[in-house]
Amino acid sequence: MRHRKAGRPLGRNSAHRRALFRNLVTSFLRHERIETTEAKAKEIRSIADKMISLGKRGDLHARRMAAAYILDQDVVFSLFSEVAPRFQNKNGGYTRLIKTRVRHGDGAPMVILELTEAKKVEKAPKKERKQKKEKEAGTEETASAPAS
């Protein structure tokens, strides 16, 4: 019986499982979207939410706790400077699971794990975009003109 046993073993020993979760959380925070199995995604969702909560705190101790778990210092920096400020007005619910397909090899259900708040992509004003397109079209015409 598995009474009072939290978490999924995922067919690994505890050290391998911890390394797997650290790698997945680091990749997730780097790319802000990953595709993995449903069981793994459900496990790392809570860890990723805790890392974002640490990023929202923003103090030195929180930064050191996040750096102790996340494998890449650049990801820690982006967590505190880019990702966490997007969720400043939210109390949880930072991630979502989207079921996508069943993997052919073993029939595992696959999901996409992503952040709920997307990156803000700043678009140039319409006038500047139009001028840029015209400029690119002009350079293509000159490049394709035959040289004599």
From TrEMBL:
Q: Which Gene3D superfamilies match?
A: Ribosomal protein L17
- The answer to whether UniProt assigns keyword Nucleotide-binding to this entry is no
List the InterPro entries: Ribosomal_bL17, Ribosomal_bL17_sf
User: Where is the stretch described as Disordered?
Assistant: 122-148
Signal peptide position in this chain?
A: none
Keyword tags = Ribonucleoprotein, Ribosomal protein
Quaternary structure, per UniProt, is: Part of the 50S ribosomal subunit. Contacts protein L32.
The name under which this protein is listed is Large ribosomal subunit protein bL17
What organism is recorded for this protein? Candidatus Manganitrophus noduliformans
* Classification of source organism: Bacteria, Pseudomonadati, Nitrospirota, Nitrospiria, Candidatus Troglogloeales
